[in-house]
Amino acid sequence: MSERASQSMSRSKRSKLRRLVPIVVAATVIALALLIAIDVGGAGPSPARAQDFEAQAQQIESQLLCPQCTNKRLDICELAICVDMRELIRERLAAGDAPDDIILFFSNRYGERVLADLPKSGFNLVLFGWVGGSLLLVAALGTAALLRLRRTAAPAAVAALDAEGERWLDEQTADDTSDDTSDGSA
């Protein structure tokens, strides 16, 4: 009887398991569907995330120059190569590349001429020093020249008046004083 009891018990367990299997499978499918829906919903760019993404792309574009134009930033230039470069920037940002990596990619591809800001190292550092030193030299020379001119300048000597000049001056001052007294009495 114990065998029979165990068989009947195992049958009842099997029947319960048979009833539970579809419920467990349905619950698993629903749970997976919910997880996928949440993941898909979360993967879509929110407006704030899209604005952040666009701001990053524009910031990178403003740091790069068109490889064909002279000193025209990538975000302003409308050549086909610039349009392609802007698309590539957005693709690489979407792939998760850092902005510095993207700038390095374009710098390696087209050379340092596509960088809007020259790196302050190597020959560029010498160039910046030369320009700054030249400006200081011109300012120092200009100041020294002005100070020297100021020191050597002497007041012009006033020549003494001769007799005719003295007479003319006396007449002019006499006319002025007589006009003043006539105006004052009137």
Give me a quick take on this structure:
This protein has six helices and no strands.
Tags for this model:
Helicase, Ruva Protein, domain 3, 186 residues, mainly alpha, single chain
Number of strands: 0
Separation, N- and C-terminal Cα atoms: 157 Å
Could you name the ranges where pLDDT drops below 50 across 5 or more consecutive residues? none
CATH class of the domain at 55-114, named Mainly Alpha
CATH fourth-tier homologous superfamily of the domain at 55-114? Cytochrome C biogenesis protein
CATH topology name of the domain at 55-114, in short, is: Helicase, Ruva Protein, domain 3
- As a percent range, the share of helical residues equals over 70%
Largest sheet: none
What structural class do you assign from the helix and strand content? mainly alpha
Shape descriptor reads rod-shaped
Explain the layout of strands and helices.
Elements: H1 2-43, H2 47-62, H3 80-94, H4 99-110, H5 123-152, H6 163-185
Any overview of this molecule?
Among the domains are: 43 residues; 60 residues, Cytochrome C biogenesis protein (Helicase, Ruva Protein, domain 3, Orthogonal Bundle); 26 residues. α2 packs across α3. The protein is an all-alpha fold and 186 residues long.
